[in-house]
Amino acid sequence: MKQFDARVTWQRAGQPVLDGRYSRAHTWHFDGGLSIPASSSPLSVPLPMSDPAAVDPEEALVAAAASCHMLFFLSIAAQRGFVVERYDDTARGLLGTNAAGRMAMVRIELRPSIAFAGERQPDAQELAAIHHLAHERCYIANSLTAEIVIMENC
What is d(CA 135, CA 12) in angstroms, rounded to the nearest whole number? Predict the structure, then answer.
């Protein structure tokens, strides 16, 4: 089994917390030394208790799903002899009520725009097959209950 670690830190900084008007800004720390400002989404916790410039957990989940799919897509495309020149995904997550009546990320839409280099270009069927296999292999997609879809006209 492989292990992945992250450290999340938050400091009260003298703010009262019992009234709920404390900052949700915090920091994510990763093993390579990168630290990322994080916060609750202003859609969940209003300003000024949230930091709109920071990454929120919902955005991070959508980015993780999109990134995982892309990484498998690039690998599978290369194995099949296709050279990806550019991959640009404007992914979207939809927060709603799940079947259990709880708030959850219920759908993640991946909208990749992909440019291939060279003469060998995948047709629509080959492109769909690569996306399908990337989705099946993506660890993040396999870990979520939300529907993850590749939007048409990618």
Answer: 40
Which residues, 6+ apart, have CB-to-CB distance to 102 below 8 Å? Answer: none
Which residues lie closer than 8 Å to 37 by C-beta, 6 or more apart? 25, 27, 51, 53, 54, 55
Q: Which tens digit of pLDDT belongs to each residue from 80-107?
A: 999 999 999 999 999 999 999 999 999 9
pLDDT confidence of residue 153:
64
- The tokens of 9 are what? 């830190």
Question: What's the order of all strands across the beta sheet hosting 103-110?
Answer: 92-97, 103-110, 147-150
Burial class (CB in 10 A: 0-12, 13-18, 19+), 133: middle
Contact 135, 69 (CB under 8 A): yes
Helix ranges restricted to H, the chain: 57-79, 124-137, 139-143
Higher-pLDDT residue of 152 and 52 is 52
